[in-house]
Request: fold
Amino acid sequence: MNDVNQIYEKLGKELSIGNKMAVPKVKKIVLNMGLKDAIKDEKLLAEAVVQLGQVAGQKPVVTKAKVAIAGFKLRKGDPIGAMVTLRGKRMYDFLTKLVSVVLPRVRDFRGVSLTSFDGNGNYTLGFSEVSVFPEIDMSAVGRNNGIEVTIVTSAKKNEEAKILLERLGMPFRKVRN
Reply:
């Protein structure tokens, strides 16, 4: 945690921000699993909740459909996914694990995309398989679900958020000229 405070101090000087409260920081990390087939098979949702709990280190919340969509045979209130919000020490521990362990395990990894910012300083990263996380036992996995990781920052612009995430160790893809 001390290292993070030093990173924030250096970032404030680099961006010439006098007020330390205005320096961009990571607010939270949200892990999300959407399961379209959970409507037909409740075991899938239970398995996803276990997997997400193992990855995050805390109990996930089951998400439910907000609207009914007849074409997908989806009713309002049907369970269709799971999510976890990480803050504080768990958030920084997860970010360290993501950068130093998980991303290097991705096949043919050449850096994360620069286009995954949302315009407000938040970054979303998707994995097609949850098996890249070391906590997941491959022999116990029935179906390999995808997982989405959203890093929410207090940055107002994508450029500030990019610099912040670079300082925290996020390996962005090099742009070729």
Notes: The longest strand covers residues 26-34. Residues 88-105 form the longest helix (18 residues). The chain has one domain: 25-167. The mean pLDDT is 81.
